[in-house]
Queue: 3 jobs
Job 1
Amino acid sequence: MKLATIKYENIEQPVLLLENGAVLIKSINEYASIELPLSLFKLVELDTVNELKRTVSKFTESDWEALPKLPIEGLYFIAPYRNPQYIFGVGMNYVEKAIDLQAKQIADAPVCFMKPTSSLIGMNEMINLPRFSKVVTAEGELCLVIGKPCHEVSPEEALTYVSGYTTSLDLTAKDIHAQNPRFVQMSKVFKTFFSFGPQIQLLEGTESLSQIVVQSVQNGEVRAANTVSNMMYTPAFIVSYISQFVALQPGDLIMTGTPGSFEINRGDIAGCHITSLLSLENQVI
């Protein structure tokens, strides 16, 4: 099941995405006589995603035919939501990426950093190159969406706290980071330096993430690609590790590392593609 937020009739509205169109959550409420939140963040925060799942699981073919649908091609996607408590990132998590950077990893301690919500954008928004940096890179990444309060959990149970996953772009002021490794946090926090969406693929509790392919895409060309199974730290381990020192909350976002980065310039389209999801794209200005 896939969810997204669109701008429709000048209002930001959550939708359920189907193969033959999108259904407004508002329409599901009216049809099923329920009161799901009309905000994707609230759907995750209040754990009403499960109520949505239970409701639509009872729909028959005639129910689906009766629900009004919007064509996917005409949808104006925006960020799924804009107010997570935390946005975390993990660096150098693919073996090939770490080798390229000649980086030494600690077996049980991934490189972590944070993004402020002021850096957050979504589909159909622009990446602004900052004056303070001359070299900016973009990276496509698998991003996890936390669905339940999550603190000090084990790797074995970590994914039960994850509501779903989505595409994301992590931007870095590479020249600032190159001055000193201690500047990694500073290099990550500029306005528009984090994009995610447009779709969130909900987890059903049984699927494996290991075969998902993540691609960093520049102007339609794949610049780097790899499979989640080639991560040094699995998504479950990352969630567990971060939960040891932060009490994660529903809606929090965790990027899991990139297969590779590329330098961006004005006029470029930076993108991320992940297996079975719509591509995330942002123009650079």
Note: Residues 2-74 form one domain.
Job 2
Amino acid sequence: MKILNWNVNGVRARQAELQEIVERERPAVICLQELKASPEQLPVWVVEMEGYWCYWHGGKGYSGVGLHVSKALCPERPDFHHPSFDFEHRLVTVHLPQATIASVYVPNGGKDFDAKLRFLEALDAWADAQQQDGRPLIVCGDLNVARTDMDVHPKERKPRVIGQRPEERALLERLISRGLDDVQRRLHPDDAELFTWWAPWRNLRARNIGWRIDYVLASRALAERASSCTVERETGTSDHGAIVAVFDVPA
């Protein structure tokens, strides 16, 4: 089962790039963040992506998430849900036989850091409830927190900058402790150059001076069956790289 996760930073601006990576990878599940568009603003081919059950959850010009499931994986349209703490079109989930999958866009926190912490706390409580119910879980998205200093290029490390603060890192660790595993880090434990976001100036992306703030978190039994989890740094013009994760489970 292949999962594509990507903060597109404006889906209308990345239409051709999204089409290219979907056609190339043919993922079973597609998780998108920061759509910056309502469903009514999207072209028909995006709204009705061929071969997928599509769910778009967004508003004009800000935030927004998408979650799309291959019809080969799920012959009947699955039920998509929003936990009660969802706001600003930041979260959508779907229950599949293989796992409950979430596409998440955590607030940056620059305008309201407390709101970011509240969202992370609610996400942690929701993940705990899923695990208590015995449901395998995969959380994909832009979580807007660099997990450790290794997840930030040395030139970008600033202890009190939002995204690197101890309070938000502690909440991310608590979320992961709910029976989840950081799939990228599990497969690449010593890679200090594994980043997913690069500030759009000074050629930082080409120089790979970035942060790792996008994740695929999976229940440990699923994480143990992950065979690859790569960042497509050379793909697309978003300031985030797409993540492609492959799990050796029936699709």
Note: The chain has a mean pLDDT of 96.
Job 3
Amino acid sequence: MMTDRAMTDRTFERIETLFDIAAFANVNVLIAGCGSGGASVALQLVMSGIRNFTLIDNDILGPENVIRHVCGRRYIGQKKTDAVADVLHDRNPNASIAKIDADIMNYPGLAAEIVKADVVVLATDNEPTRYTINEMCIRHGVPFVVGRVFTRGIGGEVFAYRPPEGACLACLEAALQRTPFRQGIREIDLVSDEEREKVYGMEIAEIKDSPGLTVDITFITSFHTRFVLDAVARRLGERPKFLDPIDENYLIWGNRPVHPFNKHFHLQRTALSPQEQCAVCATRSTAHAV
């Protein structure tokens, strides 16, 4: 005969003493992009107690994806939103997951989904979607965290937008032009569409292994997840225990000593302030008047 204890849900038994799982019960997370980065962050979040997700992506999982994706070969040919939702449900069957199979740039309900979210996990692989979400989050006062892996997996970066006064993605890009960390980094999103096609077609020997091994990506997704949990905690009435605030909103990580990094596991943390004359941040003054 089963005991009362055995009949209860023991999913989070081993981490309940780390922080208050119950505090995450009503938190809503929007995962914008279900590739190797976004899917990994979503998985880490569901294992941290987050249970309300909206997944948006319009891609199909291919055989070339599974070596870096949380979804394995059994999901080949499925929509990434369906595959990721299944993996999340495998960890927590009680998770509530909405799936949107759509191109982010052309989805008319994007703003409404952002408004419903407590935080947006920005894990797309191109600048137009990132800046679109950046502007919408500023307009509606919703935090987001973006993570990017640099070409060949030499490192990556994580940035958190913290409304109402935090620096935005445009502020970050302006500040980065004055740092050494963008010199020598051929981040895949910073090249032309034609060159991107060559990269993914492995026609450029220099960066044919873009964007790196799973282990390279995992460092960045772990930082990404931790910043998302920090964003969630800032929205709660009381912070979960043992989840101390992260003072910095921008982090650069170098996996190995390849320019501009000079050692393995090179870490730089920055508290970035809003940049003067940022055209995007200027919309903030009217954001909450509507």
Note: The chain has eight helices and eight strands.
